């Protein structure tokens, strides 16, 4: 059933360019399956949001897209993740190169214990940036909508900023490496509503140049920022029905998803009946 | 009614639990005081007794052979430089090996079998008596004359001290790196840095203060050791004058104390006290320095 569903999705979006496509992706932690049989095509220069109840594997899937799961011991992926025609889980792929094309912003703001300027410059330098660093720092901070707040204190520690500013600094840091895709794993969950609003504005600006995937617990946020939405859910599996396995229930345009969801569980989740 | 309830709330010192509480508090406090007493007594005794023999001549002259001159025993200059040189040699060996090993344990092999074995070995090595380190180096370096035919030498002394420093440095590096939040590692990977770049630019600098603290504590321990040096560096009354002298016997503060404190001559005994004073001041300042470095938090708001 899941397979069929994703086939339908494929048809509806075949006529546009695809950045990343997940093909029958299943991810295991040790022997327990976290998510299974995900099919999903993510379009270029669009914002795609992943929503779903806790434990449904949204974060696991987003981390799989830039091979962040490699850092977790015992995490295995089957199926393939195709990024612009290349299977990023092929044997000859360097995960470092993958992460340079697919940057990531995390749940907790995590600036480096360096100056604001260095926070931006470090990533760029690591990626072999040879141009005008001052200009790059200004551009990145401007794109992340945090330039005005920190232009006078570029040499102060990244920790001197507020949580929301730190998160935008982290976004700026990711922008500075000029990736094709930016992954955001619940970027606003540690922030207050005002900072959240600013980050959402930032996301709107960014989608002109980047493909963005955002995991969020906040359905209003998914509705506000994203063009496409993927709804994940869990089902119980195994003899004792104790282990939960995540799967993709529905993937479509955000407008359609929130106005006329095809699946009952999506309808229930969106209207707040569970999760 | 009101007054009686108020009365019930007052503190009654004669109650059994309050009396017991007081007795236990006093007992614990006095044991705490007793536990620092040896430290205070040793340090103050050495400082008072040794401090009075400190002057420029004691600090720079070479020591006289016991019994030569009953009025003056010379100074402890060569012993100070000897201790300094041997701890430097020990550092040159143990800091790269120790920090490198700690990096491997914390960053590369988090819980592999080899890492478990190395951690176990480090813990055992930390508990090995220093004299064993001395005998070991005596057996493989001094008695075999493996170092260009030289036997007792400053280099052998430094190597035996490095064995004592190694476990402390590995352990503190390992622990310090483990304390660096994984958030920072993910951040570094998230912007496409390689593992080496991540360690070199992010986690090592973040753990730098704790690692330096560990190194200083290891240094402080090594600088005061006597037993390993008796077997390896022995003692010399002369300053080193050339690089070659590293391959000959070398004096040190701790061995000078050991040799001269037992001499029947007053002058030599005074020199041993002066050396004790210098050693204690050196160790105290290393400890205080390490504490100070430890307080320079890597994540404070103002530090860049």
Structure description:
The complex is a heterodimer of chains A (275) and B (304). Chain A is of the alpha/beta class and 275 residues long. In chain A, 36% of the residues lie in helices and 27% in strands. In chain A, the strands form two sheets. Chain A has a six-stranded mixed beta sheet, sandwiched between helices. In chain A, β7, α8 and β8 form a beta-alpha-beta unit. Chain A is globular, with a radius of gyration of 19 Å. In chain A, 51% of the residues are buried. The N terminus of chain A is likely disordered. Chain B has 304 residues and is mostly helical. In chain B, α2 crosses α12 and α4 crosses α11. The longest helix of chain B is centred in the first third of the chain and has 36 residues. Chain B is flat and about 75 Å long. The interface between A and B is medium-sized, with 35 and 27 residues.
Provide keyphrases for this structure.
heterodimer; A: 275 residues; alpha/beta; four-stranded antiparallel β-sheet; 11 helices; B: 304 residues; mainly alpha; MetI-like fold; 12 helices; disordered C terminus
- What would you call the shape of chain A? globular
Tell me the number of helical segments of chain A per DSSP (H or I, 4 or more residues long): 11
Number of E-state strands of chain B: 0
- Whole-Å distance between the termini of chain A? 22 Å
At CATH level 3, the topology of the domain at 80-252 in chain B is MetI-like fold
Give the C-level CATH assignment of the domain at 80-252 in chain B.
Mainly Alpha
Poorly predicted segments of chain B: 299-304
Fraction in helix of chain B: over 70%
CATH 4th-level superfamily of the domain at 80-252 in chain B: MetI-like
